[in-house]
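Quick illustration, no need to memorize.
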Amino acid sequence: MNYSPLQELKKIIVIVFGAALNAVALNLFLIPAKVYASGFTGVAQLVSSLLVHSPVPISTGVLLFVLNVPVAVIGWMKVGKSFTIYSFFCVFMMSFFLEIIPVAEISEDILLNAVFGGVIAAVGVGFTLKYGASTGGLDIVAMILSRKHNRPIGTYFLILNGSIILAAGLLFGWEKALYTLVTLYVSTRIIDAIHTRHEKLTAMIVTKKGSELKEAIHSKLVRGITIVPAKGAFSNENKEMLIIVVTRYELYDLENILKEVDPNAFTNIVNTTGIFGLFRRDD
């Protein structure tokens, strides 16, 4: 399934917008307050803070880009070309905006910086995820490790983000670590409201075009589909219900398939807390 030029342009615009919001959150709120973001962005902040008085100080934007280069190469081979390209483009735009937006302190209140920085960054990340990309770094690493070791993606987010909080506490005081925890909590809640961060989702699709949808989904996603006979209670029409489990990154593709093949299909998306049995992963 190929997306129209308009869809591609819309996706690029959203990614650029999301990258700009992340840069604003960092340079105007989090970096001046020495409060740290999650994932590779937080790692870049920490390293940049350590190098600020060294002979070779490196900005957060440059470090973020450098950290993501090897990840993008691995993601290209292990995760998928389209997802990796858009994610790396997002990282590139974030690094660009971090370099051109000056670091400035809007408020001296560290709690306001932690909350507003977390909210603004989360809006950027949430819309980026909603349109089928990510902010790179940890998202790609977590996907690869999850497929390899068959553990939840959330485990790897917890490990790295926990390490960032611990490092912030040891290096800059535990008050900074606690405010970093506030930022991470706020970010997670906002992203949940915009786009689910659960690792897996179950889509139940009631349609009169079961065969066409099945073929379209299989052409784009490598996922099993269960087809159950269904009947409309009001119309008494015979239909089919397709049940498919997808990752949060595949939700954008699934939504576009539905819009193209059967925009009248009734679709219910629910969070999947656990799966027993076969669910495709890479060895």
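Residues 40 and 271 are 26 Å apart (CA to CA).
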